[in-house]
Amino acid sequence: MSNLSKHKNLILITIDSLRADYLSCYGHHKRTSPNIDRLAHDGILFLNCYANSCVTFPSFISIFTSIYPSIYLPIYNNIIVTLPEVIKCKGFKTIGIHCNPFLSNKIFRKGFDVFKDMYYESTGVVSSFATPLKSRLLNIIIEKIHKYIKKYPVLYKWFSILYNLYVLNENKDKVDGVEIIKEATKEIEKVDTCPFFLWLHFMDVHYRYNTPRNVFESTIGKKYPSLFRRASIFSKMRFARLSNKEREVLINLYESSIRYVDICIGILLRYLIRKNLLQETCIIITSDHGEEFNEHGSYGHFKPKLYNEMLRVPLIIYNGGYSRKIIYRLVSLIDLGPTILDILGIKCPTNFFGDSLIPLINNSSILIKPVISEYKNDKLSLIINRYKALYEADKSILDIYDLKVDPYERTPITDNKLKETFNTKIIEYLELRKNIKRNMLRKLLNTTKISMSSKKIENV
Ligand SMILES: [Zn+2]
Hints:
alpha/beta, nine-stranded mixed beta sheet, single chain
């Protein structure tokens, strides 16, 4: 029985594109996250947590299903049990509130009593084209325009700046974190006697970092960049053509957007205190992936890469009075689902690949396993202790980094023995991945057969 299982409710907060090292509790030199820091100070802080992918959709597959992203296929939707489904079965009211179109997928709705897709529900310009079909059509049109005017760089530059000016000026790029909090408190008010599991996803730290002026100026201590300057920087970001000064402004905007989401979390915490709910609620904060600021040749997360700036995410568990602890061990988000179930005292389903991190918190020994992150079937990263392997199937590249001496992954090491060891591990994993996929397909086939034969019996 875990020491944490006395908690009644659980709130899972995911902040899109938030890399761990930009939070003050992870050592960032600016005070970006005082509210999150307080939770970390009174809770459990995982210093070395990794996302299992570098973009939203696959990363959330690991968070909600505890399977490695490349194993997942949409046809599994009916046979995969998701985290909210398991929690709901145990009598919890399950509430999900998000505003990222990639999380509108059917798999993420499974198991939620209330699923608020604020991306599509938001008002104004976004909602006018934000139905799935219209949104897809709009994307196709924009892509076509992009492709055509790419041949004319000056035209392209101005098209991009004007587009960013429009989006920033209208402030319709994303749903504001405060709106997410408003919906969350509204839904908590509606919960009667049962405990609740609440998932909140924030997009404020996602590109374009559109922080309010006052938050920027109080966090950074500099004048807020003009609308045109911001639009111009965001346009150049896609092509990694920023000067040092522009890069600094971009980072300042990112830092202040973290402060903004931290303010939103502060509002939620004050609400929970007012309602006497904080002590009986476990709060978990993490992210789906990080963000690049030209560490490896690009910005944002437009180009999927598996370097640490894209993978190292925060993981903080606040549980009302559990003594402060810092965990140095390597962990990844595949373990988040089993950990949440352990906290709530719920048995983990067999299709979850991860392991609960509670024994680690309680100083019990746990199995040391490599941290695996991947992007589609082509890119794979494997971390074992201080060494990290980056494998690109299509280019047959295998680079090894010694994270202890080269934490920013600048120069791969040439150690043939180590390369051989990692090569064997990667081949083993790829084989395992193939077998798991095969077994899941077999399971899917059997399920279909059973449902077909039971239909036949019904007909008879
Ligand atoms: Zn994301």
